[in-house]
Amino acid sequence: MAEIVRRVKGTRDFYPDQMAIRRWMFDIIRRVSTRFGYQEYDGPCLEFIDLYAAKSGEELVKEQSFVFTSRGGEDLTLRPELTPTLARMVAQKQYDLPLPLRWWSIGPMWRYEKPQRGRTREFFQWNIDLVGAGSVAADAEIVAVAATFLKEAGLSPDQVRIYVNNRRLMDAAFARLEISKDLGKQVFRVVDKLDKLSEPAWRKYALESGLTETQVDALLELLNDNDLWQESEELVEFFKLLAAFGIQDYVQYNPRVIRGLDYYTGTVFEAFELGGQGRAIFGGGRYDNLVADVGGNALSGVGFAMGDVVIELVLTDAGVIPANLGEKPQVLVTVFDEATLPESLKAAVRLREAGLRTVVYPEADKMGKQFKFADKLDIPVAVILGPDEVKAGQAAVKNLKTREQVVAARADLVSEVEKFLPSAL
Amino acid sequence: MAEIVRRVKGTRDFYPDQMAIRRWMFDIIRRVSTRFGYQEYDGPCLEFIDLYAAKSGEELVKEQSFVFTSRGGEDLTLRPELTPTLARMVAQKQYDLPLPLRWWSIGPMWRYEKPQRGRTREFFQWNIDLVGAGSVAADAEIVAVAATFLKEAGLSPDQVRIYVNNRRLMDAAFARLEISKDLGKQVFRVVDKLDKLSEPAWRKYALESGLTETQVDALLELLNDNDLWQESEELVEFFKLLAAFGIQDYVQYNPRVIRGLDYYTGTVFEAFELGGQGRAIFGGGRYDNLVADVGGNALSGVGFAMGDVVIELVLTDAGVIPANLGEKPQVLVTVFDEATLPESLKAAVRLREAGLRTVVYPEADKMGKQFKFADKLDIPVAVILGPDEVKAGQAAVKNLKTREQVVAARADLVSEVEKFLPSAL
Q: Is B143 inside a domain boundary?
C-alpha cells in the first residue's frame, strides 16, 4: 500500500466536527457584523507583492509571506492580511462608493511563520472596517462590534478584556517627558518590552535605547497610570459613548497598549484573554493613511482583524463552544428492500421539503445495521417503510434515543418526526 | 498621486453587490447539501504537488496549476481541485469515519489558465461526494442533489439539463464494435470531438485515430441512440429511482457524455445550459480508485464539482438572480447633535437586539445629508431622536420610501420600525 501523502505543515484539515466549530464562529461573526449594518466583501487571495510595499511591515512581506513568481512572470503573494486589498478596492472606486463604508470580510490568509499552538501558516481572519468617518463615535462603534462579538460568543468581561489607548495621548505624554520625535518609534518598542522583561532588564534596555534615567522613571510612572485617559478629550468622549452600547464592562483603558502605535494614528485597542495564557485575541485602531498609501485620496478609517486560531483556543479553554454543533442529519429514512426503496426516497423528499436534514440509507440492508449507522452519525430519528407500511400508506417513526416507535399516516410523517427531534436541533 | 496597484489577472474583487450574489449562491448550496444530510468539511488551500500525481490529469498539475517552492523548500500547489484532498482526508481516518460519508465543501481553487468570460484563475468550487456506497441509489441521490440545486436556484428543466451516461455501458458498446481496449481512451477523444467538428472533419479525425470506416459508421449510430440506456440494467434502475426524487425532468440520457470517462468507472453526468451559450455547468460521476490512489483502501464513491463562475453567468442570463440581495442595513438611526448621540446609540442597541440590521450615522450632521446617505445605501427606514423626542421618551420613525413619519413611544420603537420594512427583507 502506498504511503499517504502528508498534509502541509501549518495547514489544517477541517473534518466535519472541526468544520462545525469554524462555521459556528463564522456565523456569529456574520450575525454581529450585519446587525451593525456592515456589508460583506472579499478580495482575491493572490495579490501583487507591490501592494504590500506601502503599508505592511517589511518583516511581514519580506520574511513572513508566501511569495512566488507565476508561470506568467508575475511576482505574487498569498495575502498575509486583508487591509492592503481593502485599500486597493476603496481607492479603485473612491468616487462611486457611498461614504462612510461599513465593510466586513472573512477568508483565508497565509503567513510563513513557525507553526505552534495558536499559530498556523494558513488561517482565517475576520476584518471589519468603518472607512470615511473620523468621529469618536466611529471608534466607539468598532470597539462595540468587537465587544459584542466576544459577548455573543459566550465570553464574559471576566474572561476577556479590550484594552484601549490613543496615539495622540501618548505622543503628548512622551513630548512632556521631552522624548524627541526621532526616538518615538524606539520608545514604542521599549514600552512593548515592559511586560516581557524583568524591571532591571527593562531599565537597562530602555537606557540603551537612548532614554535618560529621569525619562525611564517618568515613563514607568506613565505606564502605570490607568487614569491617564482622563487627560484625553477623545477618550473621555469615547468611554461616554461606549456606555451607550451597553458593553463597557468589556473595555478598559490601558497605557501599555502600544502595538501598532507607529501605524495607527488615533485610538488603538487590543483584546486579551484574562487569566489562562493571557493570549492576545485581536487588535485594531484608527488609521489615516490607508487609502492614500495605495494611490487614493486620504480617508480616515477604523477597524480591526481577528484570526480564527487564537479565538478558537480561547473559546475552547473557556468552555463556551456548544456541544453537537453542525448541521448534522436529523432523520434517517431506512431502506427495507429493493421494492420499497422508491417509497423511502419519496418520504425523504417530503421531509426535506419541510426543512428537515434527511439521509436515506443508500441500499437495502438489515435494519439493525441501518440503526447502528444512524447512531454513529448521532441521527435521533429513523423512518421505516416496510411492505406493510407502504401498503397501508403509513410509515413507522422511531426515536433512536428512547427506542419509542409510532406508526404515522403518510400525511402526518413530518409532524411525527418533528415530535422526536430535540428542540435544539 | 501614486498609481493604484492593479488586481492580479484572473482574480476578482467582490464589492458588496457582487459578494451578495456569491453569498446567495453559497447559501443555496449549503441549504441543498445539508437538507440531503451532507456534512460540511474543508481542506487546506496549499497541498504538496505529490498529492496530485496519482489522480489529476498531467495537464492539470504540470501546466495549469499554481506551483511554487516555499521558503522551507516544500514543493507546493494552490489546490486546482478538491478531490485529492478529500481522498487524503478519508485515507487518513479510513477506520474511524462512519461509512458511507456524505460530505460537501465550498472554497477557493486556482488554475493557471487563460482568463476569459466564464473562466477565472481564482474561483470557488462546490464539491459534494457520497463515499463508501456503491449502489445505484447513491448515484441517483447525487444527481438528485445536483438537480435540486438547479431547481432551488430558480432554473427550470427548459433552461438546464443534466445528461447521464455510464462507463460500463459504453465499454460494452465499444466492445461490440470490436474497438480494442488499447484504443479506448482515444475513442473517448473522438466522441468528445463530435459536437466540435463538421461531420466530414470528424470522420477524418476518427479514421486517423485508428477506427475503420465500419466502426466510424457504427459509432455515429451509437452516439445518436438516445435509447441506448435501456440496455443497461444500472441505468434502468437509475432512472426509476430518479423519478422518486421528483426531479426527473432535469435529467436525461445522452450517449455523448463522455468527458472524464477514462477516470470515472460507472455513472457519469454533466449539466448543460439549454440554448444560450450551451455552457457546461458541472460534471461528476462514480469513481472506484479515489482513496486507493493516495494510499488508502479501495472505496467506491460518487460526486461532482461545480465552479462558481459559469453558474453565475447561467443564472444571470436566465434572469433568476433576485434583485436587492445581501444583508443590507435596514434602519438608519440619525444623529441630531452631540448631546443626543448616546440616545441614538441606545436606540440602535435595542433595534439590533430585535435582529434588525441597524446603522448609526457616525456623527451629528444635517438631517437631509443623513437621509441622502440612507438612500444611497437603500436603507428603507430612519429613526430620529431630537431633543424633544429624547425628553418625551419618544422617537420619530420615518419611511424613507413614502416619506411617511410617525412618532413612537420608545417601547414601541422596534414594532413601528418593522411596520415600515418591506416584508422581503
A: yes
Q: Are B107 and B45 in contact (CB under 8 A)?
A: yes
Phi first, then psi, for residue A169 (nearest 5°) are: -60, -45
Contact present, A26 and A106 (Cβ < 8 Å): yes
Q: What is the pLDDT of residue B425?
A: 43
Which pLDDT belongs to residue B58? 64
The residue of chain A nearest to residue B69, with distances taken between CA atoms, is A68
Residue A273 sits in the same domain as residue A413: no
State how far the Cα of B21 lies from the Cα of A49, in Å rounded to an integer.
29
A4, A42, A130 member nearest B92 (Cβ): A4
Residues 6+ apart with CB under 8 A from B125: B81, B82, B106, B107, B109, B305, B306, B307, B308
Read off φ and ψ for residue A410, nearest 5 degrees: -55, -35
CA B107 remoteness from chain centre: 9
Query: Chain B contacts of A66, Cβ < 8 Å?
Result: 46, 68, 70-71
- Owner of C-alpha cell 475503420: B212
In this structure, are B296 and B345 located in the same domain? no
Q: Say which of A16, A92, A103 has its CB closest to residue B40.
A: A16
- Residue A294 to residue B244, Cβ atoms within 8 A: no
Asked if the Cβ–Cβ distance from B294 to A2 is below 8 Å, we say yes
Cβ atoms of residues A268 and A165 within 8 Å: yes
B contacts of A241 (beta carbons < 8 Å): 341-342, 345
Q: Does residue A2 lie in a domain region? A: no
The count of structural domains within chain B is 2
**Average pLDDT in chain B:** 92
What's the pLDDT at B56? 57
Of B70, B296, B360, the CB nearest to A4: B296
> Which residue in chain A is spatially nearest to B62 when comparing CA positions?
A71
Q: How confident is the model at residue A425 (pLDDT cuts 50, 70, 90)?
A: very low
Q: What is the CATH number of the domain that holds B83?
A: 3.30.930.10
Interface test with chain B among A1, A7, A11, A33, by most B beta carbons within 10 Å: A7
| Amino acid, single-letter form, for residue A391 | K
Question: Do B403 and B280 share a structural domain?
Answer: no
**Over residues B113-131, mean pLDDT:** 96
Alpha carbons B79 and B124: distance in angstroms, whole number: 11
Among B284, B305, B302, CA closest to B107 = B305
Nearby residues of B338 by Cβ (< 8 Å), 6 or more positions away: B364
**Cβ-Cβ contacts under 8 Å, A76 against chain B:** 8
Burial label, B368 (beta-carbon count in 10 A; 0-12, 13-18, 19+): exposed
User: Which three three-digit cell numbers place residue B228?
Assistant: 441506448
Stretch A269-289: mean pLDDT:
93
Q: Is the pLDDT of residue A424 over 70?
A: no
**How far apart are alpha carbons B113 and B122 in whole angstroms?**
10
Residue B58 is part of which domain span? 16-318
SS (H, E, C) A231-273: HCHHHHHHHHHHHHHCCHHHEEECCCCCCCCCCCCCEEEEEEE
The chain B residue lying nearest A65, using CA atoms, is B71
* Cβ separation A41–B14 shorter than 8 A: yes
With CA atoms as reference, report the closest residue to A79 among A63, A67, A90, A70.
Answer: A67
Q: Which of B295, B318, B341 is the last residue of a domain?
A: B318
In a domain, residue A133? The reply is: yes
**Domain of B397: which CATH number?**
3.40.50.800
Mutate to test the interface with B, among A1, A24, A31, A42 (most CBs of B within 10 A): A42
Task: Provide the Cα torsion A291, A292, A297, A298; round to 10°.
Answer: 90
For the entire predicted model, the pTM comes to 0.94
Give, for B301, the enclosing helix (H) or strand (E): strand B301-307
Residues in B touching A373 (Cβ below 8 Å): 98
- ipTM attached to this prediction: 0.94
Mean pLDDT of chain A: 92
